[in-house]
Amino acid sequence: MPDTLPELSPTEQRRFGRHLVMPEFGQAAQRRLKAGSVLLVGCGGLGSPTALYLAAAGVGRIGLVDPDRVEETNLQRQIAHGHATLGRPKTESAAARMRDLNPDVVIERHDVYLTEENALDLVGAYDVVIDGTDNFPTRYLVNDACVRLGRPNVFGGVLRFDGQLSVFDARSGPCYRCLFPAPPPVELAPNCAEAGVLGVLPGVIGTLQATEAIKLLTGIGTPMIGRMLIYDGLTLGFDSIALAKDPACPCCSLPRDAIVLRTERMVCAALPPGGSMTPAELEARLTAGEAFSLCDVRNPPEWSGGVIPGAHLLPKPELEALLQAGAPPPDPFAGHATVVVYCQAGLRSAAVIRALVEAGHDPARLVNLEGGFGAWRGPRAAAAPLAATG
Ligand SMILES: [Zn+2]
């Protein structure tokens, strides 16, 4: 942050009057917000309220990271977007709403996935990072880049009716890896597309993330460093637990220069026993005339974005219910052909294969599509929907 804080224009003096009138906030905090910058990773359920409130509050520069386009199924919770922007990049859609709230905010659009190649450049260009993703590989990249560069990471997580929030700042508290050194097995890590989420829940947690970012930029209050807020939407209970720094943490116990970013791979507790195939290999073998049964285990809203031609649609929860009930193997698992099972990113399908094998199916007939439908569609569409934006 620059030593000399920028002055507020007469327009800003009027716009931020409700801030300026509070003695704990006042001109100094507002000018710190104007000088400050925030990187929002994800413009979905968590990123929507965060983006709008930070723009409205007068944060000077906001970076938006999201490669996805707005889809109808997003609008149940991703309120920065709307029908008018269906099919448009989420960063463009969110930026338009943010500029309408505050034309002076500088918005930097990054229509990309956060990767091990770009994470340090992106994170390093901002004062505070807000983690608004719900996929573990991105969460670990955000964490590791923030620890390495000494940036606070405002964490939010949502699933079904439950929310979590913390501020990870390894300079004075634990990091995300102190709590969770590595991603959980796929079976224990359902995402919102699979398990669902109450639409207003990311609104609650995202708004709290915006609050923490404002506190960090202005220096007011006490940020949630070393504590985690646990929110239960069904009882409306807020609890907070203390978090300890792990002296053996695989990330923040290292000298910062020794932290190397790498993309975590999500795996099953036991690797799926069947084989796997890349989308390029599948395409080549289909073109060469090989016969496969294709089974799409995603949920109906995900099918609307497209399927692999010829696929049988059988959502994972339905399939699991059939297996639990001991029902006979559903088509396409009844025949003799090799079945290529796919979901959006190749994680749920791996769990499905494992469940099928446990139920007695022949692992030699089951093949997981690596990277799922997102990788299949890949460069053909910029809108690979898994970016997991809550
Ligand atoms: Zn740590």
Structure description:
- This protein is an alpha/beta fold and 390 residues long.
- It is 33% helix and 16% strand.
- The protein has an 8-stranded mixed sheet with strand order 3-2-1-4-5-6-7-8, sandwiched between helices. The protein has a 5-stranded parallel sheet with strand order 9-13-12-10-11.
- The longest helix has 18 residues, at 201-218.
- The site of zinc ion has 9 residues, from helix 8.
Which key terms come to mind for this protein?
single chain; 390 residues; alpha/beta; Rossmann fold; Oxidized Rhodanese, domain 1; 2 domains; eight-stranded mixed β-sheet; five-stranded parallel β-sheet; 15 helices; 13 strands; 33% helix; disordered C terminus; binds zinc ion; thiosulfate-cyanide sulfurtransferase activity
Summarize the structure.
This protein is α/β, with parallel strands linked by helices and 390 residues long. The protein is built from 15 helices and 13 strands.
CATH superfamily label of the largest domain? NAD(P)-binding Rossmann-like Domain
Q: Enumerate how many helices there are, as a single number.
A: 15
State the strand order across the main sheet.
3-2-1-4-5-6-7-8
Which structural class is indicated by helix and strand composition?
Answer: alpha/beta
Query: What name does the CATH topology of the largest domain carry?
Result: Rossmann fold
Shape: elongated
Mean pLDDT over the residues? 89
Strand content: 15-25%
| Ligands and ions found | zinc ion
Poorly predicted runs are 379-390
Number of strand segments: 13
Subunit structure: Homodimer. Forms a stable heterotetrameric complex of 2 MoeB and 2 MoaD during adenylation of MoaD.
Domain Rhodanese: 288-382
GO cellular component, one term: cytosol
Organism: Teichococcus deserti
